[in-house]
Structures are given as C-alpha cells and as structure tokens.
C-alpha cells in the first residue's frame, strides 16, 4: 500500500513541507487570535501527527511567534503562516490547510470559538459550532 504524501509551501516558495497520510477534515477556528494572525474570518486547520510532518526546504527562513506555549510558524521572507505547535501537545502539528499545494477537498468538521466569529461573517455550512475548541 502506497503512503499518501501531501505537499505544501509558503507564498514565496522558500518553505516547503510534506505530510504523510490522509489529512483529516479541517477545523475552522474563529478566535480573535486566529482572525488577527490570518487577516481573515477564520483559520482552517488540520491536525496531523508530528511524526508524519517534515520541513523539506526553508528551515533557515522559518520563524515563529510564541504565546502561552503555542507557536505560530511562518516564513520570515513572505510572512505566510504554515502551522502551529503547542508545548502541551508535542505529538500534533496544526497545519494551515490554505498552505497546501496538494489537492484537498474536505469540508469543515467543526467551527471553534464560534461565538467570537467576525460580525461580518455568517457560518452557513451546517458543521457543528462550539464555544471553544471542539472535543478531540
């Protein structure tokens, strides 16, 4: 059986990564931090196992913003957000699916921090909505 390898990169292409295995459906985070960091109504996130994730180019331009044990990893050249990690969950990488180069067509599994959503955005897809993070 062949392993699926998903590929992704930043806007300028200097940081490239790969993830082995099928990616889960995305979780859409509407918290104010994700909205500010992405300049959008939400961040679309797929949690993957750290063992399946690897940076294949651009480690020298990979930077992070650390806050309360969470790290938002981005390209220092173009500013693209790529993934987050947390000290409390070292086995997971939260991939920003908008950075994928591989085709990905899964619909959202849930909306987190839905009560914090942008006033100008309506959630209409029917996926479950949670006050905080969805149950793991």
What attributes characterize this protein structure?
136 residues; seven-stranded mixed beta sheet; mainly beta
Coarse structural class: mainly beta
Report Rg: 15 Å
The best one-word shape is globular
Measured between the Cα atoms of the first and last residue, the distance is 28 Å
Could you list the spans in which at least 5 consecutive residues all have pLDDT below 50? Answer: none
Element string (H = helix, E = strand): EEEHEEEEEEE
| Biggest sheet overview | 7 strands, mixed
Query: Proportion of β residues?
Result: 35-45%
Strand order of the largest sheet: 6-7-8-9-4-3-10
What does this entry look like structurally?
This protein has one helix at 32-38; strands spanning 5-9, 16-20, 27-29, 43-49, 53-57, 62-67, 70-75, 81-86, 92-96, 110-112. It has a 7-stranded mixed beta sheet with strand order 6-7-8-9-4-3-10. A 3-stranded antiparallel beta sheet has the order 1-2-5, with no helix packed on it. It is mainly beta. The protein is built from 1 helix and 10 strands. Helices cover 5% and strands 38% of the residues.
